[in-house]
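Q: Convert this sequence to structure tokens.
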Amino acid sequence: MSTFSALKSRLISLGYAAQYARKTGGSPDGCAIFYRRHAFELIGARVVEYVEGSQGQAHSGNIALLVWLRVAGRIVGMANTHLTWDPPNTASTAKLGYRQALQLLNEYQTMAPRCDGWLICGDLNATPDSEIVATLQNAGFQYAHAGLAQTYTCKVNGEVKMIDYLFYSPEFCAEPQSVVQISDQTVLPSAEQPSDHVPIVARFSWTV
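A:
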């Protein structure tokens, strides 16, 4: 049984439903969104395959999974994605992750009118001072854990960084939960943290 199948089986028994999409190109991983069946009604779902290769460069196979959920008479749009990491000093025009973020925002803009608010989350492989984060903020999104000191979500080459985010549109306000504290000496994965990323959590509510 795959990791996703095992997780889905367990969460279904707890009252959740799931949408899942696998990356293209034979990659074994993908993106999933789980939601409580009694609280949310699935309206629709869509997979965005990033088309970012150029000059003979193959596409990465990375994707974004988008869903529309109805809750209490309103529709929430949600995107879950995993952007490609680009080496430092890569020119903006050559950054796969940056191109993917732009494509995701273009897709969001075509679908935004059908939703009352949006959440964009996932592993963006980008730190808070990056072009990717700035581009999302310029599009009107903020991330839930902005301004919280010592918030790190992963260890990259022995250094802790924040690269995972919960972005939200102005229709929401966010109440971020504390993130497990990690340092450059923390071992990931471990018995306590079975992933090389630690989970991030926030509670969202409507502004009006």
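The chain has a mean pLDDT of 92.
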